[in-house]
Each structure stands twice: as structure tokens, then as C-alpha cells.
Write a structure and sequence with these properties.
Shape: elongated
Number of helices: 4
Number of strands: 5
Helix content: 25-40%
Radius of gyration: 17 Å
Strand content: 25-35%
Oligomer: single chain
Length: 103
Amino acid sequence: METEGLLSVEVAFAMPDKQRLVALRVAKGTSAAQAVAQADLPGLFPELAPETFHAAPMGIFGKGLRDPHGHPLRDGDRVEVYRPLVIDPKAARLARAKRQQGD
């Protein structure tokens, strides 16, 4: 709910065993990256290096952002911070295919 030049947004980050959704009130013109910084994800996930959140890909409701630093938020947006991939998707598909051929 937008009031007095402030927007209500959420920042989301999830690990397999731990998820956090941080509700924020931010000024109009705040970028997705600025909202992530305000959410203090490194404080909520101390087991991860702070750089994890600064360089991570981001999206809004599942749609990736090309430029999170230049993307101004709208009221009600949920900024999602995506965790780094542990394995390349192509390598994972190849490994699955090889396992299935062996069955």
C-alpha cells in the first residue's frame, strides 16, 4: 500500500533449509539492489559470504532483472535474490542422461 511516497515491497531469499521474506517500506525510486541492501540479508544468513547477495542475480516475482541497480521498484513488488548454482544445469542433465542409460 503506497502512502506518503513510500512503497511496500518484500525481499526474498531461500536456502534449501532456511527461507526469509523481509517486508520493507522504501522510498519511490528505490532500485531492486538498494532494497536488497536494506533487507540486510548477510545478517539473516551469516553462514554465507556477504558478496553472495551483492553479486547474486535478482528477479521480481520470478522474472529475472537485467539491471537490478537500475530497476525502480513498484508498490507490492517482491524482489527475489537467487542463490548461486551448485552445478551447471547442462552438466546436471548430462549426468542424469548417463545414469539413465546405465539403468
